Amino acid sequence: xxxxAYQLIQExxxxxxxxxxxxxxxxxxxxxxxxxxxxxxxxxxxxLYKKMQNMILPKQILQSAEERxxxxxxxxxxxxxxxxxxxxxxxxxxxxxxxxxNHFSKALKNPVLADELANAYITNRISHxxxxxK
Length: 134
Hints:
Elements: H1 2-29, H2 32-54, H3 59-76, H4 81-89, H5 97-108, H6 111-132
């Protein structure tokens, strides 16, 4: 039983890492295939988390897994372009880097995710500026 629990915890940790990484890739690239991979990895992470809940595991491990899954699910909300567009559209065109970061921090209440999205927004804005001014 202990070996099963250990293997499940290891598998869940890898699934969480994969889901997190693929969501980050999708947010960075915006490619449709990355979104499919992210959704598949997230589904696997959720399945393993449910298995963990059905096993007798230390409370700290379950709590840590739940927190990790919640962070990943917050990032998943950004898979919906409407959610992102609403946040992007509220940023003034001449906003400073600090204002952009503050905007996402207030909207997301997750500093790491806010930073990632702010960086993606800034990268998009720079790319768009190069394309439109050629």
